[in-house]
Amino acid sequence: MTKVAVLKEGAAEPRVAAIPETVRKLAGKGYELLVERGAGERAGFEDTAYEAAGARLVTRPAAVSEADVLLVVTGPDPSDLKGAKKGARLVGALSPATRGAEVGGYAGLGLEALAMEWMPRITRAQSMDILSSQSNLAGYKAVIDAAALYQRAFPMMMTAAGTVSPAKLFVMGVGVAGLQAIATAKRLGAQVSATDVRSATREQILSLGAKPIFVEAVEGIEGEGQGGYAGETSEEYKKAQAALVSEHIGKQDVVITTALIPGRPAPRLISDAQLATMKPGSVIVDLAAEAGGNVEGCVAGEVTERHGVRIIGAVQLARSLAGDAAALYSRNIANFLLAFTAEPDNAESDSPATGGLLSLPDDDEIVAAIRLTRDGAIVHERLRAMG
Hints:
Layout lengths: L2 E4 L13 H9 L3 E5 L10 H6 L3 E3 L1 H7 L2 E6 L14 E5 L6 H9 L3 E4 L14 H20 L7 E3 L2 E3 L3 E5 L3 H12 L3 E5 L6 H6 L3 E2 L22 H15 L4 E4 L14 H4 L7 E4 L16 E4 L2 E5 L8 H18 L1 E2 L14 E2 L6 H6 L2 E2 L2 E2 L2 H6 L1
Parallel strand pairs: 1-2, 1-4, 2-3, 4-5, 5-6, 9-10, 9-12, 10-11, 12-13, 13-15
Antiparallel strand pairs: 7-8, 14-15, 16-17, 18-19
């Protein structure tokens, strides 16, 4: 049987790469599941639940040495994987663009490293997209954190003592996180507006009941990047967008920024001068903080204050919702494995004794997009171009 091991993450990472639900699904397809003891505890999944789902609890050395497939949330240090089988698959969020040394280490161990965050944005891969599933939770949590820090109520309230006006919340960047932020803010009763460089998002903003704020005077600039991401825009557009934001942002109580461009520093959306136009007590949540931030003065992992405006440099917000984040992440992983599982020899039998086989064709679009290393070498063209 093909053995799939679920490794326990480091102290900073409470999520886990498989939950009992996905263990059961994989076991039903003929895989043997090994779970490192305590792997799911910080996400709310006890060892006994994994055993009940069909997994065998093991130590870290046993998980690493026995596994044909190693499942992780974040890329481990290669030294933690010594003793792994040559050719074993390492599947998880491996941060290849920023952790080149570690990727080289995986190659040196003879592992086939598969970076799930490089999953292509195509229809058949939607259920495997870890960035989308985790960003969805981050967008929700960004609004919750903003509401906790903002010293007023979000909804309008009619009371005998007078009316409480609704908070005005502005979302900049309408991807998965931005859309969830809009939906969450609307549910909390805020008055919501949103903007994006991609004109196609206008209908999505309207569908959620928010007001779209778009540059109208500049023609032919859509900001559409590859794979559904925003791309670079012209200087003319940037100036027009800055003027629009400056006019709008001074009226807002809360701003959520989510703009990212793959492989590049986060675009600067809010300058210090624009911050100065906002009301004291306003709150900004910068979801691009780890990539340099959309907001001038943002510090990743900290709450800073400029001109009376508090800026949350959000980092890995999905981790603070570890149970749900682990559930969504593990389903992404399981969907990937099951999509490439060949039927066992006894497919017509009720018993999976022969076991499923993980088959990753070289000419498959998904495999080519996420495979980093193979047979002791770095094979991904993007990484090889980076040197």
